[in-house]
Specification:
By secondary structure, this protein is α+β, with helices and mostly antiparallel strands. It has one domain. It is built from 4 helices and 6 strands. The chain is globular, with a radius of gyration of 21 Å. The mean pLDDT is 76.
Length: 164
């Protein structure tokens, strides 16, 4: 036992056990934090989009004449609106262009990413590791990305270049 303590092996073993405990412990989403991010996304979408209650409308935004984005309203109902957000730069490869499907819930006043990069719907949390290599809090991280993207757009004052 003295040999292990002198070489620090006991400490390394303890760290290994702690890491394995963290990997096996189930992730529990922080609902108040998720709700706050989704409420912020809703408020920022209302500032970015001049009108978001008509289906089959497309808005193209340009930020600093460099980045171009397209927001397409794919479905509009009384209590929900579904949007597709795509980056449309011609010079970037497709895998580097963000693409999201976002649902606005007007009665709850929240906006939630329901699909990103064409991967399908998100679960509340994932076991880790998993086959698709998604993070435990993937849903929350994608919604935070949307919040940061909307904040970036508002900071750089996007211009609506076309409405169709």
């Amino acid at each position: 036992m003295v040999f292990y303590e002198q070489t620090g092996i006991t400490e390394k073993l303890a760290n290994t056990v702690n890491i394995s405990n963290r990997l096996t412990r189930k992730y529990v989403p922080n609902l108040p934090s998720m709700q706050a991010v989704c409420e912020l996304n809703y408020a920022q979408f209302l500032r970015v989009l001049p009108e978001c209650d008509t289906a089959d409308m497309t808005f193209e935004f340009t930020v600093r004449n460099v980045l171009s984005y397209r927001i397409t309203i794919t479905d509009a109902a009384r209590y929900t609106t579904t949007l597709t957000v795509d980056q449309v730069n011609a010079y970037s490869p497709a895998y580097l262009k963000p693409s999201m499907t976002v649902r606005l819930y007007h009665d709850a006043r929240v906006a939630e990413v329901i699909s990103s990069q064409n991967t399908g719907a998100f679960a509340a949390s994932y076991d880790y590791p998993n086959n698709k290599m998604r993070q435990r809090n993937e849903k929350q991280m994608v919604n935070i990305f949307l919040a940061e993207w909307l904040q970036f757009c508002l900071k750089h004052q996007p211009r609506v270049t076309s409405e169709a």
